[in-house]
């Protein structure tokens, strides 16, 4: 009885027992203090042995009751659980890819991967962005519904075979993986950028190229959100491979280095957990694989290899369930100035600070899809490009840059 209590309380239980025992003495049940000392030291020894040789099998948990076992696992090293064959295989492949130095390329390129419905509304803007940098980038387009009509030669014949994409379902992640697989075919592609059709660049090509190429991390958004739209979406069906404490959230617009793209291709075990158990209506809740799979996967396997924020700005400042949508009156020089000069980012739900390393946070900006037509109509494209050239010119005049 006392033993199992000590087990449940862990090392802290010792203090409680020391408080309990003198009371017994006052009641006169145990008169001899030596008896108490013997008992206490036996318990101590038992706990010490149990700490050094933790129970390896589930039968040990059974003896000390299920709740006792949970407490033990929370203060013991995490390796107590025996890994399955699939997990051992998966982990060894992941760690080998991560520990193998990246393939050297004489002509390193950045792969710009566009996840679109059909045509790209900002194609002309991207055309200006790419001009003069031929050979240092490649373009891939996954158009899920309509065949795009192109206005820029950089986009012609760059569509990959696509599949249907349904909002909120794993088909979004499938499309991301399809883009990565196609972009990986070119060994010169060293960094991979996922963008939507409503993304615009906020910096010039050289700036973006240097920013991404000379950092050895991936910009993957990953944070803990204890609320119903974060951990509340977790399902126990993901056990034992994905524990709730590892469950993370993040915007889907990533950039990743080649090693990380390969790791994503190599994974089927963790992916299958999200495909099967993180979907709308799962256990009466809505879980969206595109917001949780990569943030959780990289948090588990390479937490220091990711920045924990995305370089694509999405405005959540209104704290609604969808990001802010911009209107004509919102697109001002001040807004763009603000976004391009942000040097610290805080995840709204977790208060976790990221991007605090004296570097600008955002290279791209995401507009909510609906108003894009409106933006085009009033010439936002020209406006943003104008602002853009202003930044470039200022930089040329010797404005100090943080890169
Ligand atoms: C990235 O580079 C820095 C400095 O060269 C190094 O300290 C760090 O360990 C590297 N990180 C990874 C994930 O390779
Ligand atoms: C990202 O977050 C994880 C876990 O919170 C942390 O261990 C890691 O150091 C962070 N990455 C960077 C680059 O700070
Ligand atoms: C720009 O940032 C300043 C300071 O944070 C803020 O007061 C202002 O409202 C912002 N302007 C726009 C247009 O976002």
Automatic annotation (TrEMBL):
Molecular function GO terms recorded: glycosyltransferase activity
Protein keywords: Glycoprotein, Glycosyltransferase, Membrane, Transferase, Transmembrane, Transmembrane helix
TM regions (residue ranges): 34-53
Domain of life: Eukaryota
UniProt xrefs under Pfam families: Branch
Compartment(s): Membrane
InterPro entries membership: BC10-like, Glyco_trans_14
Membrane topology, as annotated: Single-pass type II membrane protein
Cellular component terms per the entry's GO annotation: membrane
PANTHER family: CORE-2/I-BRANCHING BETA-1,6-N-ACETYLGLUCOSAMINYLTRANSFERASE FAMILY PROTEIN-RELATED (PTHR31042), OS06G0661900 PROTEIN (PTHR31042:SF150)
Protein name: Uncharacterized protein
The organism of origin for this protein: Mikania micrantha
């Amino acid at each position: 009885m006392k033993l199992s209590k000590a087990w449940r309380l862990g090392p802290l239980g010792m203090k409680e027992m020391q408080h309990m025992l003198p009371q017994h003495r006052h009641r006169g049940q145990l008169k001899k203090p030596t008896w108490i000392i013997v008992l206490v030291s036996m318990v101590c020894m038992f706990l010490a042995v149990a700490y050094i040789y933790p129970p390896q099998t589930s039968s040990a948990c059974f003896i000390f009751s299920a709740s006792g076992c949970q407490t033990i696992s929370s203060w013991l090293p995490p390796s107590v659980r025996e890994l399955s064959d699939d997990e051992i295989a998966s982990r060894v492949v992941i760690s080998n890819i991560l520990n193998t130095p990246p393939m050297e390329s004489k002509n390193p390129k950045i792969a710009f991967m566009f996840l679109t419905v059909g045509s790209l509304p900002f194609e002309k803007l991207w055309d200006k962005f790419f001009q003069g940098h031929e050979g240092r980038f490649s373009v891939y387009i996954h158009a899920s519904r309509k065949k795009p009509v192109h206005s820029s030669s950089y986009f012609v014949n760059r569509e990959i075979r696509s599949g249907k994409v349904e909002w909120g379902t794993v088909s979004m992640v499938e499309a991301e993986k399809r883009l990565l697989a196609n972009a990986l075919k070119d060994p010169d592609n060293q960094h991979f950028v996922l963008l939507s059709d409503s993304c615009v660049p906020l910096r010039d090509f050289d700036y973006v190229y240097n920013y991404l190429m000379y950092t050895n991390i991936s910009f993957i958004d990953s944070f803990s959100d204890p609320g119903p739209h974060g951990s509340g979406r977790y399902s126990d069906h993901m056990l034992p491979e994905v524990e709730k404490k590892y469950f993370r959230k993040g915007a889907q617009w990533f950039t990743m280095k080649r090693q990380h793209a390969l790791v994503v291709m190599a994974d089927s075990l963790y992916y299958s957990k999200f495909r099967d158990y993180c979907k709308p209506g799962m256990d009466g809740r809505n879980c969206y694989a595109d917001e949780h799979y990569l943030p959780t996967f990289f948090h588990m396997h390479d937490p220091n290899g990711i920045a924990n924020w995305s370089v694509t700005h999405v405005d959540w400042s209104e704290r609604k369930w969808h990001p802010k949508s911009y209107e004509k009156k919102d697109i001002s020089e001040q807004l763009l100035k603000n976004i391009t000069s942000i040097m610290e980012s805080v995840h709204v739900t977790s208060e976790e600070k990221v991007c605090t390393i004296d570097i600008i946070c955002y290279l791209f900006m995401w507009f909510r899809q609906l108003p894009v037509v409106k933006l085009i109509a009033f010439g936002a494209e020209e406006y943003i490009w104008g602002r853009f050239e202003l930044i470039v010119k200022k930089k040329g005049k010797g404005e100090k840059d943080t890169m």
